[in-house]
Amino acid sequence: MAIATINPTTGEAVKTFEELSETELRQKIGLAFDRWQTYRTTSFEERAGRMHATADLFEKEADLSAELMTTEMGKTVASARAEALKCVHGMRYYADHAAEFLADEPLADPSQVGAVRALGRYQPLGPVLAVMPWNFPMWQVMRFAAPALMAGNVALLKHASNVPQCALYLQDVFRRGGFPEGCFQTLLISSRRVESILRDPRVVAATLTGSEPAGRSVAAICGDEIKHTVMELGGSDPFIVMPSADLDRCAATAVEARVQNNGQSCIAAKRFIVHADVFDAFTDRFVSRMRELTVGDPFEESTDVGPVATEQGRADIEEIVEDAVSAGATVLCGGRRPDGPGWFYPPTVITDITRDMRIYLEEVFGPVASLYRVADIDQALEIANATTFGLGSNAWTDDEVEQERFISDLDAGQVFINGKTTSYPQLPFGGTKRSGYGRELAAHGIREFCNLKTVWVG
């Protein structure tokens, strides 16, 4: 795939970029390794000062970074602006809390191990490669970069090939925020060259957010090299509605949860599993709201849903929908691409889904909702857990017994009760099953790329 900005609203190429030469790539890796030797010795106060300065720049330039995101991958400008400000929040959070999260952990009674002092100490690992996707081109990078840099690591970013301007902006803003050259570098390269970076002994670990095949490849290479990895590989999140739910609030949130980021979010609700007692009432509200959404130019503030990011992405959506319809599924709204330029696909709701349809198990990365009728909580959990994914999950119920059942039995990295799954710097983020392993955000995220060293003093 060429490294290029192709506007998904029009389908037109805006700007193309040359890949780094092999010499340039090795120089950048060498710079990262050399920089780490000195950067790792800096204090938390120094790092925090630079991180706050970068956050201030990011906040001041939120409209600029929002324009880049909307141009390159089509998210609405309102959501792009919100993403930029979320990055600011994440940077400031880790600037303020890194020292606390990575403080020494002393053994209360070191005499238990025959020592006068015994503790665990977190220390940075070194240069870490981040392989990142296009759907949240700033935030998904920042939720790795902010904790990694605050821990004393340095970062190498291999971003998706369709968001090169976002990737270069990130490199530039960290530089202008005061981070020394080599602390954060963008690598404009194709995916085929990732393996050589992972096998370079100067690169000590990797994190990837993306597809299951990409995760499998990176994890296999790092396993062969005995290098630490964190994987976030997407999901097909359930959104369960029980009889006690506030249906008006639930349906409004359901629409937002499905079409956020034009439906291209790993933690977007994708499968709506509704108790039979409220199925018709919820469906009426949900479908009506989906029909009312405005699809169009993502730069217009009134637009609810912009284009899908890539032409292939829209083709993938169409194939899954057509497979379901041909096997007997019912389309309640949407389901057919509009005429005209750009890679638009309408908000779509499908029901009468059976196990032999691809949509039953596969993630649909676009504004398509699957609707299931269930008889009870057991059937709801059975369908919710039926996929190979386990990233996020939503359940709507005011019954405390049901709430505890969902918290206990939903096989996912995250369970949100009466609310939409989202990511917060304060909470750990990650999945189970084929949604990946490891955690980002919170204290867990900053510790992923640290060596927890045992210290014993006799």
Automatic annotation (TrEMBL):
Q: Which domain of life is it from?
A: Bacteria
What positions does the domain Aldehyde dehydrogenase occupy? 3-455
Question: Record keywords: rRNA-binding included?
Answer: no
Q: Which Gene3D superfamilies match?
A: Aldehyde Dehydrogenase, Chain A, domain 1, Aldehyde Dehydrogenase, Chain A, domain 2
GO MF term list: aldehyde dehydrogenase [NAD(P)+] activity; succinate-semialdehyde dehydrogenase (NAD+) activity
Q: Does the keyword Lipid metabolism apply?
A: no
Mind listing the UniProt keywords for this protein, alphabetically?
NADP, Oxidoreductase
User: A Pfam family for this UniProt protein?
Assistant: Aldedh
Family in the record: Belongs to the aldehyde dehydrogenase family.
Name of this protein? NADP-dependent succinic semialdehyde dehydrogenase
Organism from which the protein derives:
Nonomuraea zeae
